[in-house]
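Tutorial, part two.
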Amino acid sequence: MSRKCQLTGKKANNGFAVSHSHIRTHKLQYANLQWKRVWWPQGNRWVRLKLSTKAIKTLENKGIQAMAKKAGIDLNKF
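Running the prediction step on this input gives:
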C-alpha cells in the first residue's frame, strides 16, 4: 500500500535537504500516517484505515461518513 492518507489523499512532498555548505540533496517529506481503527456507526462495525494525523483530528469534528463520502470511498471494503 502506498504512503497516502485514505481520506484526505495527503502524500509525500518533494523537497531539499540543505547542508551547512548549502549542498542541496533531494529528500521526501512524508505525511505523518497512522493505522487507526475507527467506529463506523452506520455499518455498526470497526473500520481500519491509514490516516494522517490531520485527518484524525478532522474526523472527530466531521465524522467518518461525511469524510468518506467526500473522498469517494466505500467503507464496506475496509
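The longest helix spans residues 53-62. In part three we will examine how such features are distributed along the chain.
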